Amino acid sequence: MSHQSLQRHLPPYRADHVGSLLRTDRIKQARLKKANGEITAEQLREVENEEITRIVEKQKEIGLKAVTDGEFRRAWWHFDFLENLVGVEGYDTETGIQFHQKQTKSHSIKVVDKLDFNGHPMLEDFKFLNSIASGHTAKMTIPSPSMLHFRGTIEKSAYEDQDEFFHDLAQTYKKAIQAFYDAGCRYLQLDDTSWAYLCSEEQKEQMRARGLNPDTLGQLYAKTINEAVANRPDDMRITMHICRGNFRSTWISSGGYEPVAEILFEGVNVDGFFLEYDSERAGGFEPLRFVNRSNLSIVLGLITSKFGELENKDEIKRRIDEASRFVDLNQLCLSPQCGFASTEEGNLLTEDEQWAKLRHVVEIAEEVWK
User: Fold this and answer.
1) Which UniProt keywords are given for this protein, alphabetically ordered (predicted)?
2) Contacts of residue 127, Cβ cutoff 8 Å, sequence gap at least 6
3) Which residue ranges of the chain lie beneath pLDDT 70?
């Protein structure tokens, strides 16, 4: 095995992370003040800049190669991005998204006009992150194109024809990917919860009730993602995080990856997948047998971001070893199973526990891929 393969010069890295971090008290206070009209948008941004600089330093300090802004400027992992696309509007709903035991704040999105990409506030957010990454890789996270269809309502006045909608969606994302590249982004992650729903019989029933066909949805989503990433520059790495729902330490979907493994690993042309493997709900590693591309990275989310208690190192190493029966160890990486705060409320652990988790990932990776 070459020295280069051990070092992993390209993302995803041996020790990586999904992206979102617990919002600090200072961020929460400033956002509240901004909402109450007590401070200006500029003043809020100033606080965000300072806090993001602090957490980027912290990520470097604990040994991560990829740094994110923790999604500190967002309220949601997906809506903030999607509602700034041309043709999409955010609105408040009567109920939130139902998780096991909990419900999110009420907000959603709708497609009211033809989709397009024409600049985006998150380009500036990325540029700021990139300017302080110095020597580290600035990682940008955005929702996968699937999420606009999966979470949004498409008004008939905007699109009568499903094919036209998916075509425009792919083109919109293609422009977005190029715009982030032009802003300096070389590591982009698409976050996607729809695949986990397609692994869950209970969720598939609910999808049918909404008029969606789970049997064809995976094909449609894969085709759209592939069109979106098709012409990405050679030096840009795009990964996808397959999420099972993450809100205040609860979840939505259960079920192993078997139902979608073939289409994902053989049919979605990204450079790596972040897979949640922190509980029995994710099933075993057998679906990884569909990983037939030697250039595809699989990031095992074996460390939970939902609770503060640290996992047993030997147990995690055993599980990496188990996964390596299906995928070459050289293609495997390690990360927490999800972000720490998919919404601004965050999971139920402390900031110190969050950093300890990330340090745990770095230490285990250093021992496994030494």
Assistant:
1) Methyltransferase, Transferase
2) 183, 184
3) 1-7, 94-106, 245-255, 279-282
DSSP-assigned letter for residue 303: E
Q: Which amino acid is at 300?
A: L
Q: Are strands 86-91 and 108-116 parallel, antiparallel or unpaired?
A: antiparallel
Place of tokens 């390690």: 334
**φ and ψ at residue 298, rounded to 5 degrees:** -120, 115
DSSP letters spanning 202-216: HHHHHHHHTT--HHH
The answer to whether 218 touches 204, Cβ cutoff 8 Å, is no
Quote the pLDDT of residue 119: 97
At 250 the pLDDT is: 40
Looking at the 3D structure of the chain, how many domains does it have? 1
Residue 332 structural domain: 3-368
Q: Which pLDDT value is given to residue 196?
A: 82
**SS3 (DSSP) at 89:** strand
**Do residues 138 and 129 make contact, with C-beta atoms less than 8 angstroms apart?**
yes
Measured from the Cβ of residue 37, the count of other Cβ atoms closer than 10 Å reads: 7
Whichever domain contains 222, its CATH number is 3.20.20.210
CB 46 within 8 A of CB 73: no
Residue 48, C-beta contacts closer than 8 angstroms, at least 6 positions apart: 27, 30, 72, 73
User: ∠ CA 100-102-104 to the nearest 5 degrees?
Assistant: 120
Q: Decide if 253 contacts 244 (C-beta within 8 A).
A: yes
Cα 263–Cα 266–Cα 272 angle in degrees, nearest 5: 105
